[in-house]
Amino acid sequence: MPEFFSAPAFSLWAAPVTWLELVAAVLAVAMVGCNMREIHWGWPLAIASSLMYFGVFAQHRIYGDAALQLFFAAVALWGWFQWLRGHRADGSVLRVARLSLRGRIAALLACALLWPAIAFFLMRFTDTDVPWWDGFATGLSLVGQFLLGRKCIENWWVWLAVNLVSVSLFVHKGLWLTVGLYAVFAALSVAGYLAWCRRMVPAP
pLDDT below 70 — which residues of the chain? Predict the structure, then answer.
């Protein structure tokens, strides 16, 4: 990692904020702004921010979230393609839509299974001290990323849950800039939901 990025940019409550964390946070905010407006350039911003946050989280032993950033970077390529060329099952253009009842049940079931599975994996194979908090954020983020890529409006509620839990996690780790970032993300999750409600095509 270049020395510039690992160097402290400033301190918050006696905790150093590196240039890596600062740049990653700025790119992440820009990414969410693009997502809210359905601007596909948010996906390459997601790749860059995720790779940077991989370094930040690994340094602080938040291994689930660190590994998640690599997943985000890879899935962002898929999401970018979906937003540019994706279609619904009926062949129609991919637009903002709600999940069916079956889709909502499947999403909730995926969250319920991924959370403990990842938490137990972290407890078994890493030295993390926050397996359940980390597992929750990681598991639900996998679901949220898939729903975002398919423009399902429920992705914003999943991200709201992730962001609120992540605020507590990063307070525990002393990542104060990221605490503020995820508090902003929580507010943007609600704003994003409202923005997508206005963009959603009414059901026939």
Answer: 1-16, 201-204
* Whole-angstrom distance, CA of residue 154 vs CA of residue 99: 7
Least Cα distance to 139 among 168, 112, 157, 101 occurs for 112
Q: Provide Rg for the chain, Cα atoms.
A: 17
Closest CA to 66 of 52, 76, 80: 52
pLDDT value at position 17?
Answer: 74
Pairwise CA distance, residues 143 & 106, whole Å: 10
* Sequence-ordered list of residues with C-beta below 8 angstroms from that of 84, at least 6 positions apart, any chain: 40
Q: What is the DSSP string of 58-79?
A: HHTT-HHHHHHHHHHHHHHHHH
- 118/106 Cα distance (integer angstroms): 18
Q: 74 and 110 in contact (C-beta within 8 Å)?
A: no
Please tell me the predicted confidence (pLDDT) of residue 21.
83
Q: How far apart are CA 20 and CA 71, in angstroms?
A: 19
Provide the residue ranges of all domains of the chain, joining segments of one domain with +. Answer: 17-88+101-199
Distance CA 159, CA 165 (A): 10
Rounded to two decimals, the pTM is 0.81
Structural contact between residues 184 and 30, judged by C-beta atoms closer than 8 angstroms: no
